[in-house]
Amino acid sequence: MSLWTSLEPASATVDPGSSTRVRLRVRNTGDVVDEYRFEPVGDVAPWTTVEPQTLRLYPGTTGTVELTFAPPRTSDAVAGPNPYAVRILPTEHPDAVTVPEGNLTITAFTEVRAELVPPTVKGRFRGRPRLAVDNLGNTKVTASIAGSDHGDHLSYEVRPGNVQIEPGRAAFVETTLKPKRIIWFGAKEERPYTLAVRRSGVDPTEIEGTYVQRGFLPRWLATFFGIFLALAIAFVMIWIAYKPQVRTSATEQTEQAGVALAPSPSATPETLPSSAESAPVEQPQVQQPPGTQEPEKDKGDGDGGDKGGGGGGGGESKKPKPPVRTAATAVKEVAARSEGRHICYRAYVADQGWQAPVCDGAEAGTVGKNLPIKALNIAVSGTKGVTGNGAHVVEAWLNGSKWESVPDQTDMYLGSTKEAVSPMEGFTLKTVEGTVCPNTHVKDKGWLKQGCTEPGAWRYFGSNMENDRLQLEAVRITV
Prior knowledge:
Elements: E1 3-8, E2 11-14, E3 20-28, E4 34-42, E5 48-51, E6 54-57, E7 62-69, E8 80-90, E9 101-106, E10 112-117, E11 120-123, E12 130-135, E13 141-148, E14 154-159, E15 162-165, E16 170-179, E17 189-198, E18 205-213, H1 219-241, H2 250-261, H3 327-337, E19 342-349, E20 353-354, E21 358-359, E22 364-365, E23 373-381, E24 386-392, E25 396-397, E26 404-406, E27 412-415, E28 424-431, E29 437-442, E30 446-447, E31 459-462, E32 472-478
Parallel strand pairs: 2-9, 11-18
Antiparallel strand pairs: 1-3, 3-7, 4-6, 4-8, 5-7, 8-9, 10-12, 12-16, 13-15, 13-17, 14-16, 17-18, 19-20, 19-21, 19-23, 22-32, 23-27, 24-25, 24-26, 24-28, 28-31, 29-30, 29-32
Keywords: Hydrolase, Membrane, Transmembrane, Transmembrane helix
GO molecular function: hydrolase activity
Region (Disordered): 254-328
């Protein structure tokens, strides 16, 4: 060994977001002039700089370099002791590599960010917002969630009520808001509320939202029912007061017949019939009241019967709806026309729904309209299948480590069309054979042109998940 080293101090402490320095002394114990190069190694190497990076020493002389440690104030700088080392490479004796080791302790810090998704919910009997709690610190966070509002108008169901979040991770809390008083009639009312994320020893983090409570029946409908009821009562009263009188003419004709049979005043007693031989009285003909008829006799089986009996159902038959045109439908049509590898895809765009599928590098989604992609439908042909997973702006990987995987000419779906789930920010893809080359358009960044996968290997395409977290707006994909 022709080299002597010393770290001063061997152990150091640093706060995330600041820096500290350690001195490394090097002595050339050999008999020739030598030049040494210094390379930091270990978990803290990305945050370590060495000045100077090379040192030339004569035999028996000593030199000094400074190691500067500057861990960022992010969850990547894990709290606690972190061993580090510096590899020293002599130029004249390349095999005599020396690696002095030290220890760097990174102090802990906590930073919590919470967001309501969506911040405003509407309903008559309940609302269901989601609370996303992000741990931006470098140590585990334990917190409880509680809700409150001015006037005590709402009750709260929080699931789970307590969460433990690892550094750099997020937890999602399902919340159900229920009004204590139902609005049967009238306009909607806004109920501001607050969800508090409480941690031991620090002030709670409060997130404000709004619950818009709708009336069970709108005011105009209540007015309509009132007017309708008043008109119905008035109609019944008028009907009772002015009920139409139905009379028959049979009584009048009977009276006329009696007058015709009465004796004339000038008749003599001889001409009058005796009481024993009184002429038979002709019965008056009674007329039916207006609007009634005697039933007609059966007319037989002529054509006057049911004329429409043989027509069957006269309604028009409904036409069946055409099948949904998916990515698998499109890729089968392309594969039937052309051999080789093909890929077809379509995008579910916010406020627009599913677009028509496009293939082999055509553009899906929108550009310049601030309409994010919520989900993707992808199908391939000639690659023996495709595998992928979708990442979202708030929830990150909805399925965790579970990937979607389908064979050729079969629909694969990435992302979610649910309103409560945030837009996509990117996705991973891999084909069984060959490569896949997506090109993504991200909000405020434009087309990223991220290249292709290696054969049989996956790759992520889209917004930077560590820094940007921007929504995906359009894609172009080829295989």
